[in-house]
Predict the 3D structure of the following.
Amino acid sequence: MSGVTYDAGALLAAEENRRDVWALHARALQRGVRPVVPVGALGQAWRGGPQPHLSRFLRGCQVEDLDDRRSRAAGVACGRAGLADLIDASVVVGALERGDLVVTSDPNDLARLARGLGRRIAVHRV
């Protein structure tokens, strides 16, 4: 595993100031890992400011765009898994490309999306 990807559940946990998420985040940063936040997951978690904890959490992260190629790959993942959540699928597609651990509150759907692509995904439930 090379890195960490956060989904909306991880971001919401950070905004709730959950110690477990902040500790995981601190360990990643100490190892020189810059966690990735897919832009759609950020949109799901952002509720308008100021969200001070989430804003601070994001300073150490890289926000990943959802481009044409990744959108299509996420659509394929949804189709193969029989699911419709494009944002979850974009989290899975990006994490699989990088070999990342995904920090999530919804490991079952992410695992199902990965299986639809014939892959397994490492998840940490928050």
User: Anything to note?
Assistant: The helical segments are 8-15, 19-30, 39-45, 52-58, 68-81, 86-98, 107-116. Residues 68-81 form the longest helix (14 residues).
